[in-house]
Design a protein that fits this description.
It is globular, with a radius of gyration of 19 Å. By secondary structure, it is of the alpha/beta class. It has helices at 34-47, 61-73, 99-110, 145-157, 171-178, 199-207, 234-243, 247-257, 269-274, 285-292, 317-321, and strands at 8-10, 17-19, 21-24, 51-53, 84-89, 115-120, 125-126, 140-141, 161-167, 187-191, 211-215, 261-264. It is 34% helix and 15% strand. The protein contains eleven helices and twelve strands.
Length: 325
């Protein structure tokens, strides 16, 4: 089977590189589905994927760890160092004294000695305890960002993760973090696709040498919060028809041309293979102009997972994302 060589982007803070395309392992509802996840990850490794994204919330860490162990045992990869593994700190553990134990638990689940990237999943905390989705609104808390980030920095200094970063952070929240951070976040993982181009956030992060990693590049259909606006977009369908590509490939190529890494989420062998077919062609200037005129739309608002509440730290979507588009 032919393996695709995936380009990589250089991360800030001198912590190495990250593959431009990675495989996400979140499937809602979040349940442990070890055999299906493990099989899909092994197939992705055979195809050339080297970045795998998980989180304590997703309940996929153990299956990913089993797949990595099998890949090493079967010679699909020679060393764990060939892989780039990302996991995330869920809100129930976003408290200074719980950050290190949460990472250590993730490493046990993954059967790894270190992560390549560890992210704060959302810019808020939840009362410690069992993870529930949607989040109980009475359990929402403002995050002690300075102290939580100090604990993330400690994880990096201990060698338990090569890099630290954030997810779903706006310009304003990144600015606040940067006022006290000793280590800059290497990555901000956010929703990004042709209908949510994140121009303001991308410009902000580029100036500060923070990489963007895009999730939901095809929209968020089939998730707790999703719909199908991206995949039903007539402009994108027409571009795909003219280019002789799939609509998914048009979306992924667009993200790639923004010099942004991207996470794809499919357990289908054919789709996994299709998603890698974006490196030997380019969008035309006309294509890009059409995409830049599309209305902006946020699929992942945080509201449906219970992160917006009248008595919570964010009472509306605009407060959570600070109106960044």
């Amino acid at each position: 089977m032919e393996t695709v060589a995936i380009p990589a982007v250089k991360l800030g803070s001198g912590v190495g590189t990250m593959p431009c395309i990675g495989m996400g392992t979140a499937v809602y509802p979040f349940v442990e589905n070890a055999e299906i996840t493990k099989s899909a990850v092994l197939e992705a490794i055979r195809l050339g994927y080297r970045h795998f994204d998980t989180a304590s919330l997703y309940l996929s860490e153990k299956a990913l760890g089993q797949a990595i162990a099998d890949a090493l045992r079967n010679g699909l990869i020679k060393s764990r160092d060939e892989l780039f593994i990302t996991s995330k700190l869920w809100c129930t553990d976003a408290h200074p004294h719980l950050v290190l134990p949460a990472l250590q638990k993730s490493l046990r689940n993954l059967q790894l000695e270190y992560l390549d990237l560890y992210l704060i999943h959302w810019p808020m905390s939840v009362k410690p305890g069992e993870i529930t989705v949607p989040v109980e609104k009475d359990n929402l808390l403002p995050m002690d960002l300075r102290s939580v980030w100090e604990a993330m920095e400690e994880c990096q200094s201990l060698g338990l993760t090569k890099a630290v970063g954030v997810s779903n952070f706006s310009c304003k929240k990144l600015e606040l973090l940067l006022t006290t951070a000793k280590v800059k976040p290497a990555v901000n993982q956010v929703e990004m696709n042709p209908l949510l181009r994140q121009n303001k956030l991308r410009e902000f992060c580029e100036r500060r040498d923070i990489n963007i990693c895009a999730y939901s590049p095809l929209g968020a259909k089939g998730t707790l919060w999703g719909d199908n606006q991206v995949m039903e977009c007539q402009v994108l369908k027409e571009i795909a028809r003219i280019r002789g590509k799939t609509l998914a490939q048009v979306c992924l190529r667009w993200v790639y041309e923004q010099k942004v890494s991207v996470l794809v989420k499919s357990f289908s062998k054919e789709r996994l293979k299709e998603n890698l077919g974006i490196f030997d062609w380019a969008l035309s200037e006309e294509d890009k102009q059409k995409i830049n005129q599309l209305p902006q739309y946020r699929s992942v608002s945080g509201a449906s997972v219970g992160l917006i509440a009248e008595n919570g730290p964010y009472q509306c979507v605009e407060e959570l994302f600070d109106e960044d588009v």
